[in-house]
Amino acid sequence: MKKIYLVLFMVFISLNLMACGAKNSPVEPVSVSIATLKGPTSIGMIKLIDDSSSIDSDNASVSMEVIPSPDLLVPRLLNEELDIAAVPVNVASKVYNLTKGKYELAVINTLGVLYIVSADKSINSLDDLKGQTIYCGTPGATPDFILKNLMNKNNLKPDEDILIDYSLNNSELAQAVIGGDIQYAILPEPFATMVSMKNKDIKRCINIQEEWNKVEESAEIIMGAIVVKKEFRENNTEFMNKFLKEYEKSVSWVNDNPVEAGKLLEQHEILPSSKIAELSIPNCNVVYIDAQSKKDEILNFLKILYDFDVKSVGGKLPDENFFMEK
């Protein structure tokens, strides 16, 4: 009988030791890969880029990366190397379609950032540009489609009533505007701020976002967004909730503290100088908007791009599953 009790006692001790060992075993932290782009799409994330300690934890090891252009970022998403990324909203649609729904749209982070700039003080509307040539950085890109859509809605025919010249990229275009070599250009931030800083005669003649509001039911131009890998989000809900909360705080901090944010944006080479960054932030429409709350507006905006070029959104419009569940 004593032997039986001894055996039972040993089994009890062993089970307790195993349980304690299981409780005390360190949990392997999940590696979280976050990427963003140079330019306005990254502005709202700068606080986290500078210091990710608020989202780092014993359960998560976070790496933050700033990538120079969408051409370098998109392949990383298509290969599913990234868990979270800040991208143009049409790129979000492309990635969703090309990965068959493996990435979701979580947050809108940037609205309209486009301006028509000129030293010509008589220009106050698109109609004032009739008979003129306006320079646009890249044919077949979102700014091109936005400009053409506004022309169409104002009964102006692109390349007839207003000529569009694509011979210069945005950097070259900014220098040409500063030097007075061209009169009219559509530029995104921070280029619009840069040209007005370096040539005091240059002004933002037309705010493209304001013109859009006059003619479109989807009242906002939706430029930037946060995408999340669906599988990662499903397996790491606690981290995702924490990330989104801290990201929203970062957006608020940037808008409230443009001087300090500008220094960080220069330090991390997201914008060319702290002064340009500081002055451009109020014109960059940096926001935090839950994508679910703006589904119709997002799809309407993507439909406009789709009507110009189906490839711009990945061959088709995304379905309802494009929007991240809360």
Automatic annotation (TrEMBL):
Pfam families attached to this UniProt entry: Phosphonate-bd (PF12974)
Name the UniProt key words of this record, in alphabetical order.
Signal
| Tree of life domain | Bacteria
Tell me the first and last residues of the signal peptide.
1-19
What SUPFAM superfamilies has UniProt attached to this entry? Answer: Periplasmic binding protein-like II (SSF53850)
Please give the start and end residues of each transmembrane region: none
Which InterPro entries does the annotation name? Answer: UCP027386_ABC_sbc_TM0202
Please give the name of this protein: ABC transporter substrate-binding protein
Q: Specify the species.
A: Oceanirhabdus seepicola
Q: What is the lineage of its organism?
A: Bacteria, Bacillati, Bacillota, Clostridia, Eubacteriales
